[in-house]
Write a structure and sequence with these properties.
The protein has helices at residues 9-23, 61-72, 92-98, 121-124, 141-151, 157-166, 213-227, 242-247; strands at 30-34, 38-43, 49-54, 79-84, 101-103, 109-115, 130-134, 172-179, 182-190, 196-204, 232-237, 251-261. 30% of the residues lie in helices and 31% in strands. The chain is of the alpha+beta class.
Length: 263
């Protein structure tokens, strides 16, 4: 009898990714619902709502889409339907577009993964930069200051979103890198249930770029992930950031496409 083929490492990782970060995941500020067609999340206005996983088969796309429109439209909030390059959902993209969904970003996010049990040597070394962990909502003012300086807008959403998440033990780690006691770069990590930790930000003021702050923040966070027993770090990278994280050992896992309903 012929031996059954052994699933590839990528196939196993993608199955874990789907199960843990798309189906089983919970968000503290969102209501999760698993219907016969989708896994969806609904948040308070003005936040973005979304479908994260499609359970419906090709014959049921019409029913599934109509059901989500009936659910989301009365809320008056933006909502997206997330698809991934590894999803086996032939024709769903075209069906969504026919119902008024538009690809939200011309630069879809590449989900990049790193096995932190095998950190590159430069990320396993002790970090010498002045990096401090932010313990509470009040400390987030330095995060807001950096984000405002980088993006040129008001980022007061940080106090509510990150501030609320900091109150959940073990769920979020926020770090700020300082230069001469002034905030210069910020980054944070989420620890949902499962084997993955997810990395966000890595934003640095223009005057302090190319000084190793991004790498120091990345190293410190990856070391924390390893110390906490999570084997995998995930980061969503656009066209500009993908080469950067690739240089640090991250590899492509899949690509996320957000289809936003425009009517």
């Amino acid at each position: 009898m012929d031996a059954k083929p052994t699933p590839s490492q990528d196939t196993v990782l993608l199955a874990k990714y789907d199960e843990q970060l798309r189906v089983q995941i919970e968000y503290p500020d969102a209501r999760k619902e698993v219907t016969r067609d989708v896994v969806r999340f609904t948040r308070q206005a003005p936040a973005m709502n979304f479908v994260t996983y499609t359970l419906a088969g090709e014959a049921d796309y019409e029913r599934a889409i109509q059901a989500q429109l009936k659910h989301f439209l009365p809320l008056g909030q933006p909502f997206t339907w997330k698809l991934y390059e590894h999803d086996r959902l032939p024709g769903l993209k075209e069906k969504l577009e026919a119902h008024g969904f538009v690809l939200d970003d011309e630069d879809p996010g590449d989900m990049m993964i790193l096995d932190v049990r095998e950190l590159p040597p430069h990320l396993a070394e002790p970090v010498r930069a002045d990096i401090r962990r932010i313990p509470d909502r009040a400390g987030l003012r330095d995060v807001v200051q950096v984000l405002d300086g980088v993006y040129g807008n008001q980022n007061t959403w940080v106090y509510d979103r990150l501030g609320g998440h900091l109150e959940i033990p073990g769920y979020l780690s926020v770090y700020v890198a300082y230069v001469q006691d002034q905030p210069a770069s910020v980054a944070w990590t989420y620890f949902p249930e499962g084997q993955f930790a997810t990395l966000f930000a890595g934003s640095t003021l223009e005057t302090h770029r190319k000084q190793g702050l991004y790498t120091s923040l990345l190293a410190l966070r990856l070391q924390e992930i390893r110390e906490r027993g999570r084997p995998y770090a995930i980061v969503e990278a656009g066209a500009m950031s993908k080469p950067i994280v690739s240089r640090h050992g991250f590899q492509h896992l899949t690509t996320q496409y957000d289809y936003e309903w425009k009517g």
